[in-house]
Amino acid sequence: MRIWKNTRVYSDPRMQRLADWTAMMLGAAEGTALQIGCSPEAIVAQAALESAWGAASIGNNVFGIKADPSWTGPRRSVWTREVLNGESVMIEDWFRDYPSVQASIEDHFRFLRDNDRYRRAGVFDAKSDLQYFEALQRAGYATDPAYAERLMDVLRTVLRFSADAVLADEERKPSTAPRLLMVGCVGPDVAALQRKLGLSETGAFDGALTRQIIAYQRDHELAPDGIVGPRTRASLGL
User: Interhelix angle for 101-114 vs 13-36, to 10°?
Assistant: First the structure.
């Protein structure tokens, strides 16, 4: 497993913890991401949503996987919030317990691989992180009807943190590749994007620009995630 570290210092201790946690998780997530076909950041985003960025993980169980009858390892009984019949309720249930976060990530992959409903839902056929999240939702990974949308919101934050992560055992210069553009970004590259779309050049990536990007992506058969990455950038000619 490759070890990543966060290179940015935040004045807010909570932001610092989230950035450091994201960097720690990236290396552990790379193997699973390669086998599934999504980005490591997508795996980290799901772990972040399920465990409140590691703060609420159940015995290193960062994906909230329950201990069904097939599970023979350690387990813990925990109160958890579920959506039942359209209502949010608290129930007590059993969850798998792991010796490490790495073990949790590896079991997460096995859990998806060995349950046919995830394959039928298209988890291993997804061509983008959004499609991976939508397949998880179709398969019933969570009871939240907006699960994929919530994962995309978390992914945007993970991507911001991962941009500041570098391999801990390598000296390397910051990447010269164009940054990912998403809601919250400010600068001349955002203004150039707005100019390309025929919009007012405010230089601020807001909700209105996100909706414009999503509409453009849908019209051009791109993953409609509202993020200007390499494929969307190439399509726009930026």
Answer: 40
